[in-house]
Amino acid sequence: VGLRELDLEVRMVVLLPLPAPRRKRALAGATALTLGVAALYFRHQSVKAAAKKRRERDGAKRGKKSSKSSKKVLAMLLKGSVPSLAKLAGLACARTALANRLSTLQGGLFRTAFLRQKSSFVRLLGENFVGCLLLSYIQSQFSKMTQGMEMSWRNRLTGRLHDGYFGDMNYYKCSHVDKSVANPEQIICEDVPKYCSGMAQCTGEVISSIVDVLFYSQRLSSYTRTNSYTLAMCGYIFGAGALVKMVSPNFAKMYKRKQALEGSYRMAQSRLKSNSESVAFYKKGILVEAKTIEQRLADMVSHNSKVLFKTWKFSMVQDFVLKYFGATFAVILIIGPFFEGHLRPKDSMAGRAEMLSNMRYHTGVVISLFTSLGMLGSMPSKTSKLKAYVQRIGELTDLMAASQESSGKAKELEAGTKTTRNYKEALTRDGGKDATDGSAEMSPSSIVFKNATVSTPAGHTLIRNLNLVIEEGTNLLVTGPNGAGKSSLFRVLGGLWHLEEGYVRKPSRGAGPKSAKDDEGLASDIFYVPQKPYVSVGTLIEQLIYPSTLDSDRQLVDNPGMLKGLLEQVDLLYLLTEFGRYTSNAEDNVSLSSSASSDLDGSVHKGNPSVLDASTTVVNWSEVLSLGEQQRLGMARLFYHKPRFAILDECTSGVTNDMEERFCEIVENMGCTCITISHRPALVAFHDKVLHLDGEGGWTLNDLKHDVEPASSSSEEEKEEEETGSADQAAGSDTPVSTQSLRG
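Above: the chain's sequence. Below: its structure in token form.
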């Protein structure tokens, strides 16, 4: 109708003043314009309808997937809790029976008080006191078992998540490769406890409510000689529950969004703390960070306000239907049986006393039954709030399962109830072989890239068809512009990223000499030293032997001379001799156990108190050491572990050139094969090959020759200098002796 009116308006206003020929052409143009607008309008409506259907279909798929994950998590928790659930059911039966006995005794108190039977009143009062003590004990035992089940569930569920999170390097992939699940640490540390706590509470309420409903329904039908009161109560409860369900908002969606916003706000605060020094150097840097934090806080407060308002409206309806009007309905059920029938009181004194006793007992039965039915009726709204947590837990488990399936190492995270950590088994099985992706194979004494194509997780190709063999004893220097894929090459080697094409072969364990301090992972075969080494919270010796622990490696504790020599090599001996400078940063809440401390006291000489400090005092070294000191500490780790291959990723950028060359000489004397990423020309002399990445997928491999003859007499010094100079010129020139080139 609107389009027809628009067409008529155009004809009347535009076409009438025109001559006949032009009027026909204008009429045809106006008609075409109208049809075009109509086509665009209907096209827009069809796109909107298709998008709506797609969103509904995706939402249904996500709902089915989250429901499936929720059922898996709940089944895993309940599978190993059958004995605890049976005990809870037994305690619930005992509590209900004792509560029924107390209701009978309290009815007797009303009767004896009305009849003024003092001795019977005192006797019943004593029995009531003993029953209250027993009921209090049973109730505390029930609460204790519920809390114990909550802790057991949290431990079991957290252990299953740790199996997937720590295994297959998902702790890295969830933060750097697939970021579809935000803040996985919040899910593990906050969502799991809240879900387990709420689910344990709901489980205890369901068990006690079912027992009460079954018992008191039978009692109510028994002494009223009719089922009408029970049916009326059930009808009211479930009718009110249906009404409450109709007006209930989507708590799962709201609480899921709430948890995500709180995690985002907390992450912004954590990022400011981690980078506080860098922000402080900029005069107005805090303005940018404060704006981000305040914006996230505003989003969180705004959403929480909406949740609070919707919860208020829902609670108003729920309280009216289930609490206040329900209390009025309960009064009708309490008084109703005494108007007529066999419960109608007699006109005698004893009859009125019996009515008081029966009414007191009947009141307890009705209230208990009404409360239990109301608890069962409100259970869907309680569990809907828990869906927000279990959906996030399910998303994390699905992400880790997908990662494990893509790498060919899927695990049954939900199978069984054992608490063995699968990631530890994976790192120690088969004699400690490295857990790598499916494209990696083992090579006796070399690292091989065959037709390897390296791409980022986003799909950007960095290196194409790389063919590279790094033999043991052949040092390789990797150069190229920023973003060319130098570090990404070793992410593939370490199994952090997967190859798009080709395969990688790594040196297998046992092919070379092994020391007593071989540890899990890649430490004894391929040791990675990054530009900013990881410095953990611990003792000084633990920093040097990382990733080994003092439980498995005590060589530096038992050999103080080796410890001092290792620190002297990297000019960090003052960390040992002046250890008191760093105790102000010691972690007060972290200490070794008494047994471990006594073992260290026995293994350390009395004349070396500094060694004892270095093995017992826990310090946050990332706040104590500068970047240069951390890099030297990373090199000390390398010297200690003596691996066959070492990947040096700009790990000496914070030290002097002389110290850098000294480190290279030490590594060369160790017999360790170096794969170095660096931009310093002085390091060319310590390498045999140069791999240059051009940043566009191409690469060039250059073989270097260092022909330096040793001096035999003073008459040959001049000739030696000439040859050395020519060799240095060849090493620094752009024209290599032998070149393999492949351009992307």
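Residues 236 and 326 are 8 Å apart (CA to CA).
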